[in-house]
Amino acid sequence: MHLLSICFATIALFYGAQGACHSPPSFGPPNMYEIVNGTEIMELLSTTQNGKLYNVTVPHNGGNTQSWYTVVHVWGTPYQMGYAQGALLKDSASEFISTVWGYLEGQVDQFLGDLPVWLQNMIATFGLDAALDLTYYATLDYTPAHFYQEMQGISDASGIDYNTLVRVHMIAGLTQGACSAFGAWGQALANPNKALQLRALDWNMDGPFRNFPSMTVYHPNTGDGHAFVNIGLQGFIGGLTGMSSAQLGISEIGVGYPDSTFGSESRIGIPFIFLLREILQYDQTLDDAINRMANARRTCDLILGVGDGKMNLFRGMEYSYSVLDVMDDTNLRPANDTWHPKIPDVVYWGMDWDCPSYNYVLSQQIKKYYGQITPELAIRYFTAVEMSGDNHLAYYDLTDSQFYVSFAAQEYVSGPTPAYARQFTRWDANALFNEQPPSY
Questions:
Q1: pLDDT tens-place string over residues 160-187
Q2: pLDDT(8) > 50
Q3: What is the reported pTM?
Q4: How far apart are CA 171 and CA 8, in angstroms?
């Protein structure tokens, strides 16, 4: 019960969009910016043993509206890949972890009066770190050791305090965020022989998170999984957004408005950020991913999605400690003909489970462009109009192993702030996965 209370307290720091779930629907303007080829605007900054660091400057009309993100390639064992990240991102990752930790401590102070008395006393006496250490011990037996080996490598190379690095990952595993997702295939698409997937992350925009965007391309040793790209934050190794060389993509939505079908939650189990990354690194098929979820010690209320470009299919999962319900276009829930209607060859959710306003807008855009949908059209008329994906978002063309990504503007960058309103870059995932390691 104490761990659940910690979870609910930390969720309060990150949820914001759900407040609009039961407001009247609002339609935003389309995103008409040109999509840029990522390889044409990337610059090699440095290399180290087992790693390469690139910078991508997104033009967004030039001037002081330009933003950036890093692309990091890492090879080897978990520890070696972590060490390469720490060496390449030493200053920026250190700044990210220390800034985020300071922000989290300050935010907890603001919400201290809303917490249970026992937790107020615990934080006042021991600090936020004690609460997160409890989460670490509650999840340790269910989390593969290679994640902590990788974090140890980051710490050793960068000088980041290992315990602080782990605690930042623990709080990310407690906070689910408000997000959107869809998968479309068959007759919904302009090319019916494809699969298209969305993962839009609507997460905290007041803190420092949007100042440290990054994509990490992992090249594990033979026999330890396969190559994949993890889209997120510098120094953060949990799976938020990404696709793999097995043509699988992941999506996630935190559920702030569940219904009774979700059953119960738990904080003793594998954090979802690690489960999703396991799917990227190890699973070959959609069925593999579903079986992994079914056999996992699950935790909190989520909607998860996995697409498979080999089968040209997408499935969504109602996910909690006590429930795993797999959905396609025929059994999609919540069942509501007005704001969450079933659409053939489409599975979708806007921002949350019981969230009429965002689901309505997303459903209307999907129906309006049904049979014409491409990644470019969805970027223009789906997430921008729904206004989802403020921190970052990606569209995966799983069949052709392409993806399109946008990050929020840094605090010091002018122009539109949300990722859904900014310029996207397009990437050939196969080219990223075939990158050659540096010679050392």
A1: 999 999 998 987 766 556 899 999 999 9
A2: no
A3: 0.94
A4: 11
pLDDT in tens, 364-377: 999 999 999 999 99
